[in-house]
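Exercise 7b. Backbone tokens:
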């Protein structure tokens, strides 16, 4: 049985609410998929246009960054993939997931008033009792011509819906503001914010990159970077490079650029 925090997404309602011109002009809503990113990549191969949006109520194999699984219970959260033409400037491609996180942040602020920050590269996080809790994550995957940007946002999940190992590090909007949030409205705000951020990236990149740097909580912090199959690196997160990489100042004074890895903010 569905709880009061669950309601079905309706294609017609989403269609009515979307104000973005391109993002979501072609919309696919499914009850269950393995992964919205996987479906979006398949649709890209079949000729789906730039701006196609794939949404699902649940994912059986939701993918997270660095080979992890994205927990995707039915009817409570947002699982969304956006299909985009690959920008011709390579350095802009790597900004797409960062700017999607920025769009999620803007939409959460607009719909709930909740202020979130970003943990590099593209986690949307909330500070609670001195620790960071993850609200949303973004996974970018490329096909030949296109980029699939997948976004998972915990909307109406209750504490007991999270696996035990995530209860201290993850959160949802319901847990933060104490009331359920209208997923269709949040989705339409997010798609509108994403369209604006992607247009800014192509036409006014400095503006949107500056906004990212402003709300990136990682900058100025001492951090540990966990890398797959290598020893972790420590340093000061100094700035973001023109291609979105994190510039880490090491104890020996060297500045190195990190392009993939998990950031832990040190005290
Ligand atoms: C992360 O690990 O932080 C990234 C999580 C991305 C999850 C989303 S949910 C929609 C889309 N489809 C997937 O399989 N993954 C992304």
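Sequence design result:
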């Amino acid at each position: 049985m569905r709880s009061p925090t669950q309601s079905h997404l309706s294609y017609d309602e989403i269609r009515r609410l979307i104000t973005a011109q391109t993002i979501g002009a072609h919309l696919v809503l499914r009850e269950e998929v393995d992964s919205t990113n996987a479906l979006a990549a398949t649709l890209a191969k079949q000729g789906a246009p730039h701006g196609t949006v794939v949404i699902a109520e649940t994912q059986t194999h939701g993918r997270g960054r660095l080979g992890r699984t994205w927990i995707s219970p039915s009817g409570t959260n947002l699982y969304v993939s956006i299909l985009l033409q690959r920008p011709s400037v390579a350095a802009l491609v790597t900004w797409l997931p960062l700017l999607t996180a920025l769009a999620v942040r803007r939409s959460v602020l607009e719909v709930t008033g909740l202020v979130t920050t970003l943990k590099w590269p593209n986690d949307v996080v909330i500070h609670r009792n001195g620790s960071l809790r993850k609200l949303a994550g973004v996974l970018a995957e490329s096909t030949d011509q296109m980029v699939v940007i997948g976004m998972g946002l915990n909307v109406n999940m209750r504490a007991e819906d999270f696996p035990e190992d995530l209860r201290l590090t993850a959160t949802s909007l319901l847990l933060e503001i104490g009331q359920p949030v209208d997923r269709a409205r949040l989705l339409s705000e997010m798609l509108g914010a994403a369209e604006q951020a992607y247009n800014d990236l192509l036409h006014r990149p400095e503006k949107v990159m500056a906004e990212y740097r402003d709300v990136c909580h990682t900058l100025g912090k001492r951090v540990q970077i966990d890398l797959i199959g290598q020893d972790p690196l420590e340093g000061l997160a100094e700035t973001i490079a023109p291609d979105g990489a994190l510039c880490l100042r090491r104890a020996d004074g060297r500045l190195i650029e990190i392009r993939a890895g998990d950031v832990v903010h040190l005290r």
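Instructor comment: The mean pLDDT is 93. The pocket of biotin is lined by residues 35-37, 59, 62-65, 68, 70, 79-81, 123, 137-139, 150-152 (CB under 6 Å).
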